[in-house]
Amino acid sequence: MNSQLWLKTSTALLLVMTASLAGCHGGGGGHHNNDTASTPTAPTDPTTPTDPTTPTDPTTPTDPTTPTNPTTPTNPSVTAPLVTGQVVGEVGAGLGGVGTLVSGVGSTLTQVPVVGAAGGLVVNTGNAVTSVTDGVTNGLGSLGTDKNSLGITVAGVTNGVSDIGKGVSSLGTGVSTLVDNTPISQVPLVGGVVGKVTDTAGGLVDKVGTTVTMLGNTLTTNVTSGQLGKATGGLNDKVVVPVISMVENVTGKVGTTTGLGQPVDGLLTKVGGVVGGLGDKVVDTGKNPLTNVVGGVLGGVGGALDKSGGYLNPTTTTGTGTGTTTGGLGGLLGGLGAATGSTDTQTNTGGSGGLLGGSTGLLGSLGGTAGTQTNTGASGGASASGGLGGLLGGLLNKN
């Protein structure tokens, strides 16, 4: 009996202690959680302090189009044409008014009965003159700066051919209507016969003019963008410009060596200014198409005189050129290829007979301030340091 009571009492006490310990453990955990609870999104919201679009927007401080625009400081379109191009350009510009004058005469002529049939031909002839002079001004006038200046010049001529064709067609139209609304057309039988003759003749002339116009248009297209254009471009780039440059380099050396370059240039500039000023006075005084043309021609002549001083007084250039030529015409002219350099080294190998060897010795050292010239011939070569070649080569190398 006593042992059963003790067992029940021990079991009850154990259950009470177990419940008490469980309650303490749960209460302590809850208390801990209450002490450390917080909202995790408030202090660590990444969108507020570290928004990358505000301080590091790359479009504002590093816009590459503002400080590094390459078209402003390095504009390459400042190269001047060759002196010959400048002179021809002035002449072309001076003659530009001639075509305008002729076209004006044709426009007046169209108002005259009968002979007015040829008015269109005269107008388009003036247009042809303008096309040619424009081609000269824009073509040969750009020698040294445009790779197909020769093609542009030829295109001016072919445009002139088209203009002439239009003029012939205009003449044909004029002939077809020559007797219309005239007393002849009112004469029975005669008027009909004459009208048919003029219509037929005018139609034939018109067809000729149309053919000529088509020919001119075809040539113009071909010379600017076709095979003919490639041919003129190659001729311009490999023959015309190099040869003219060579000549201008030689004349410039002569002017510099003799000391005549600057005085002659100054004189030509003054004379050109006087002639150009006279042209301006003619235009201002006359104020009619004829005096405009005369004044324009005088202005062109004055401008050409001014620019021609550059042949003996060229613009100073510096650089280094090296040329090597072997035999033939190359041995004769090769040394001139580096004439724009301030320091040139030229080696030429000539054939037998000493002619080309001596010639390269004579001409090869025209290139620059300090030239080194060596010539080798099978028989009788001449170096720039001796003989006639050395004399003229050394003379022309002085500044």
UniProtKB/TrEMBL annotation:
Range of residues in the leader sequence: 1-22
Residue stretches spanning the membrane: none
Keyword Thylakoid: no
InterPro entries, per the entry: CLP_mid
Biased composition (Low complexity): 35-77
Top-level taxon of the source organism: Bacteria
Sorted UniProt keywords: Signal
Entry keyword annotation includes Signal: yes
Pfam family, one: Collagen_mid
Domain Bacterial collagen-like protein middle: from-to ranges: 116-313
Disordered, as annotated region: 28-80
Protein name per UniProt: Bacterial collagen-like protein middle domain-containing protein
